[in-house]
Amino acid sequence: MNSENFSISEKIVSSSYIRQGAQARRGHEQLIRLLLEQGKCPEDGWSESTIELFLNELAVMDSNNFLGNCGVGEREGRVASGLVARRHYRLIHGIGRSGDIAAIQPKAAGSSLLNKLTNSVVLDILKVAGVRTVSSCFVVPMATGMSLTLCFLTLRHKRPKAKYIIWPRIDQKSCFKSMITAGFEPVVVENLLEGDELRTDLQTIESKIQELGAENILCIHSTTSCFAPRVPDRLEELAVMCAKYNIPHIVNNAYGVQSSKCMHLIQQGARVGRIDAFVQSLDKNFMVPVGGAIIAGFDDSFIQDISRMYPGRASASPSLDVLITLLTLGANGYRKLLKQRKEMYTNLAEELKKLAETHGERLLETSHNPISLAMSLCSLEKQNDRAVTQLGSMLFTRQVSGARVVPRGTEQTVSGYTFKGFMSHANDYPCPYLNAASAIGITKEDVTLCIKRLDKCLKTFKKEKCDQSSTLETSLTGNEGDPCE
């Protein structure tokens, strides 16, 4: 209620009570005012009542919620289901206009304000997470792969002769298909094996630039967050190379916001060389439903060009989800989650190392990867050809999700390109392995249960091996001793 309505209310209920209620209301409004003035994520999270009040205030500014509104167009924010309307807080018009996803909608002042505020709050959080000089970003209602495609399509207009994208190999389908969908030819550069780690082959990348001609290369498409034993690309060196040859640089930072190391690489790359845009997922970094990404960069005009490339209006759901989440957490709450994730990485590494040693395996040395870990599975491979993949099935049926079991020798064709050793980021990685990741939101209970169930599965294989050996021993000698003791 406004001040006039509060004054009228004093004639109905004791004025002292009304003043107390008005003061409480002003507390909510003060938080909203600071958000509007500063455009930053609040340090401390808001209560659900403040967030709902704010969203309801935004919703009544959209034409579909005007009292007495008469809509005679083809898009009037009509919703048949009340449940759907409530799910979206009656913010139905979406974001952007037909020519620009960042444009203001005349019919939807509230939704437009939501869009602008979300982009501003997310920009602030990217700075909090470590990329301090990022200047512009926007939330796009597409996951990481299609958001990368949008970046490549925008570069097409700036480099019309270019047909190649140089891509240090990472065995993840969506980032590879993002280049194919945009109509470009990926130039796959195999990684170098350094110890257990797979790292960027800078010499081959530079040779490819000289061989193909810089003007024929759309960009270098590098990666930060990835599955071990691959580690983040050498962004600083790649950024310097891109500046040297005047080639754009797009970074796939899919789940890298949660890692201070990945964000530091982007910050340093932009400082010493060239990074045109970096793309990250909303669900992986902010624990919201799948369907959104953030495209960010250091040149406002280029990021605006990307937003204008998006055809038509867009769903406001990803923007709404991430704004609600960040207002709930506050900057301090998000920092706390980042700190907990890093602590859990150390815990997961320690527990996996102990388990590996118990079963005659080892935790691979991948110190440059700040999120993902890998444990060798050599003994399973020696046992039989199917044991490695069987372990993956056993873990899944025991409700251990996210663990990847990577056998050797897998071959797969993606969009006409055949990859040997697919999933291992190399044609012939020296050993099969199991991946586990310490991602934002992981708990100690998750780690404990995973280790317990993985241990039980590995013991099952050991028992089977012992049973087989015992049977063979008995058939050859007639003795019934246990060769595994």
TrEMBL record:
Name of the protein in its database record: O-phosphoseryl-tRNA(Sec) selenium transferase
Principal localisation: cytoplasm
Residue positions binding substrate: R97, S98, Q105, R313
One GO term of the biological process aspect: conversion of seryl-tRNAsec to selenocys-tRNAsec
Pathway(s) where this gene product acts: Aminoacyl-tRNA biosynthesis; selenocysteinyl-tRNA(Sec) biosynthesis; selenocysteinyl-tRNA(Sec) from L-seryl-tRNA(Sec) (archaeal/eukaryal route): step 2/2
UniProt entry keywords in alphabetical sequence: Cytoplasm, Protein biosynthesis, Pyridoxal phosphate, RNA-binding, Selenium, Transferase, tRNA-binding
Lineage: Eukaryota, Metazoa, Chordata, Craniata, Vertebrata
Keyword Metal-binding belongs to the record: no
Species whose genome carries this gene: Lepisosteus oculatus
Catalytic reactions on record: O-phospho-L-seryl-tRNA(Sec) + selenophosphate + H2O = L-selenocysteinyl-tRNA(Sec) + 2 phosphate
